[in-house]
Design goal:
Layout (H helix, E strand, L loop, with lengths): L1 H11 L1 H13 L10 H6 L11 H6 L7 H11 L9 E5 L3 E3 L4 E8 L3 E3 L2 E8 L3 E3 L3 E7 L3 E3 L3 E7 L3 E3 L2 E2 L3 E10 L4 E2 L3 E10 L4 E2 L3 E5 L5 H9 L14 H20 L1 H13 L1 H23 L2 H29 L5 H15 L5 H45 L9 E3 L2 E3 L1 H6 L6 H21 L6 H16 L3 H6 L1 E5 L7 H15 L4 H4 L10 H6 L1 E5 L8
Parallel strand pairs: 1-3, 2-4, 3-5, 4-6, 5-7, 6-8, 7-9, 8-10, 9-12, 10-12, 11-13, 12-14, 13-15, 14-16
Antiparallel strand pairs: 17-18, 19-20
Helix pairs in contact: 7-8, 7-10, 7-11, 8-9, 8-10, 8-12, 9-10, 9-12, 10-11, 10-12, 14-15, 15-17
Amino acid sequence: MKKILHLFTLLGAFSVLSCGVLQSQDNTPAEPQALPPTEAASGETPPAPDAQPASDATAGDDEKPAKPERKKRKSRDRASVSRAGGEIVTFFSDAIVPKDKKVESAVAVFGDVRVDGSADEAVAVIGSVTANSKVREAVSIVGSTTVNGGAREAVAVVGNVYVNSHVTGQVVAVGGGVELGPDARVDGQVVALGGGITRDESASIGGEIVEMKLFNDINGFNVWITQAIAKGRLLAFDSALVWAWIIAGGFLLCYLLTALFVPKAVTASAVALEQRPGGTFLAALLTAIIAPILVVLLAATGVGIFILFFAKLALVLVGKAAFLAWIGRRARITHPLFAVLFGGVVLALLYCVPVLGIVMWKFSSFLGAGMVVYAALLALRRRRDERDAARNEKAAAAAANPAQLGEPPVITGTEIVTTQTAASFATRAGFWVRAGALLIDFVLIAIVANVCHVGVLMLPLFAVYCVVMWALRGTTIGGIICGLKVVRLDGRRVDWVTAIVRALGGFISVAPAGLGFIWAAFDDERQAWHDKIAGTVVVYAPKGQSLV
């Protein structure tokens, strides 16, 4: 396992090695300069910088032959080998070591490595390694390792290892199998985690054999990584990727069953994107932001994990089916089942396009979740509007028939509580207008806190500001701008005790990542947690009534 860790350390040096290659190209010997005019006219030739006396040149002929040619050849080699020790590093191409070349390491990222000459290390990341001559280490990640010329160690991560020569160390395949040819001789361990170990009768193993067989062949997975994922797509037209198309067909079948059992939810989500694309995209963005917070909160409880799993499963299935139905509806296919089928075929073809395939996969999942959430919010809003309309009709009918009002108003001191007071603020404010008013107040207090250099006390100052404004005016500056007012459930004005309790309850609403405030968007009574604690509700002030 040390070698595997060493391999990942090499990945961090790729950028340095590539910079070395670029720098070595700039350090090639310069071309000879032209002679000055005076020297050219006189016919004199300046002495070469490395010139030696005749006697010394004769004595050193056997020791340093053809020095200029060797230097020129070395400069040509540096065009492909980095200056820092003789490494070959390639990206999106193959790294090949010819027979007449010796390097310390050959590394290919998204490419194969073939060693015909001499190399200490041969490493391929999402590619295969073929060592036809002796190497010290041959390692491939998501690819196969083939050793024909000998090695100290041969390793493949998510790939197979084939050995037909002498390996003095160990042979390891993680997520793959090991095959030993007739000339294979391994002195160390042979480990295969995932695939099996196949050996010729004449092959010899000197160390321990560790085999954990889970599958027969992993070549199809390697083809998927190199031909699909490496090119930024999920699918590709290749005979080795039939299994990937079968899995994609299984997912499409799940979406078809979802459209069959819950067609109204799928259709409503697709219509939400059609009619309100901006709101749907905003809901998708908020869902992506809030979802990790909910994961942390629900994971703290044992039951929350199961709720989260089933909620995520339903969101993915309905959301993806709704996105496919939306594609089908572009072709004027209104039936949800056939719309999902048509959209699935179109999306599968888009998955085969490089780069666009991965983008469409992520975008469809992202937008599908927003479609479901926004459709649910629209359904809740319609239910509230219908309930509010029924309540207003009942109040109007009662006002038209005074006999139904019952007992006369109760007068206690200077405070009068009547049904007219409660009816005047019957329309309750929704989540978004409340969020806008809260944002205005927060910005104002933040400006004041920064001007007074008391930014550390901004939250306590905000709480005090809310208590004073609620108790004196029944609203805040943001509420005045948005036309909102805070009242008690019995219709009375908010007193100091209620204002303090509501402010303290606000900290409880903030504690779980603001979930207590978001609760007002889903609650039937449009109350946040601090509203329920203090017995208050935020309503729209009647037109023409001053809140100042």
